[in-house]
Amino acid sequence: MHALIALCAVTLASFAQSTSAVEPYKVLDTTQVMGSGGIDYVYADNDGRRVYVPRGGQTFVFDLDSHKLIGSITNISGHGVAIDTQSHHGFSSSKPLGMFDTQTMQKIKSIDVEGRPDGILFEPCTGRVYVFSHQAPSITVIDPKDGSIVGTIEVGGAMEQAQSDGRGKLYVDVENEKKIAVIDVKAMKVITKYDLGDKAGEPGGLGLDVKNHVLFAMCANPGVCVIVDAEKGTILDTLPIGSGTDGGGFNPNAMEAFSSQRDGTLTIIKENSPTSFAVEQTVQTKQGCKTSSLDSKNNQIVLICTERAPQASSPTPAAGTDAPGERRGRGGPGYLDVLWVGR
Asked: Please, are residues 118 and 130 in contact by the beta-carbon 8 Å criterion?
């Protein structure tokens, strides 16, 4: 009898564990603030436990754990933000670049750069900030201690999201070429470019499994994720995602890649092994939530979009739409929505 009871207890525990493991993702919380102007990237600073969202002429700052608005940095805006936790300096991808103090939330200075800055990344191997442009120079490298320009790297094509392996290689989407460029950050030069194949659309988001050397290129038009061997450049798989992706990433804690889409969906891709992948879930978010960032401590994905406030009297474009040639969110007055997705 005792053996039977013990067996039942083990069975129930295993069932509960299995049920918990497959619990679906959902929108856990939404933070709204009023504002105006376009949006592009959201950045979750996991070390500083803050979320940065440039919009209009300022950058909103939220607490990554409480989800509450901390405040805003005035005269600092652009497409995205990168943070160096050692110097407590932040940078916005704009022209000119904006440099600010993360502790005082005050602007330090503007940095003149060339090109059309878009994506931005703090690269841990070199301890530098990399700014990615849609025009030459492709990459501008910044020393975060003083904001000086270290140099530039010419890649060719329109740069989008990038990921670092932390060991000297940087991977960046080349949107208009449907390729991933591989950069040697120490030598500051291009090693090669990986072609994403005939099924690929324009890559806007990028995830990287550093341990297993796997890249996840999130492509729009058509909406697919092209999965690539980061060492060889060979295509491992191509999976469907939603429409209008412009951001993504990889969560090593869950062994999952994710892609955020402007059609109001978030695609979760499970890495079952370094050669086996499957779409695990399509999460309903909000229309226009096309960029995202990972809270690695809480295993949550942070997304942003805008929507017109109910009292707005003048007509504005549908949420998430852009002017010709632009990839940013709509610029009219209304809510900024920050969504927190998790299990």
From this structure: no
The angle formed by the CA atoms of residues 44, 165 and 268, to the nearest 5 degrees, is: 55
* Alpha-carbon torsion (213, 222, 219, 44), positive or negative: negative
- Sheet of strand 58-63, all strands in order from the earlier edge strand to the far edge: 43-45, 50-55, 58-63, 69-74
Domain chopping of the chain, boundaries: 24-342
Can you give the pLDDT at residue 330?
A: 52
What are the distances in angstroms from CA 256 to CA 42, 193, 299?
19, 24, 10
Burial class (CB in 10 A: 0-12, 13-18, 19+), 50: buried
**Among 15-29, 216-230, 320-334, which is the least confidently predicted range?**
320-334
How many CB atoms are closer than 10 A to CB 96? Answer: 13
Instruction: Encode pLDDT of 120-140 as tens digits.
Output: 999 999 999 999 999 999 999
Q: What is the pTM of this model?
A: 0.89
Would you say domain 24-342 falls under CATH 2.130.10.10?
yes
Q: How far apart (Å, rounded) are the C-alpha atoms in residues 277 and 236?
A: 9
Helix (H, G, I), strand (E, B) or coil at 122: strand
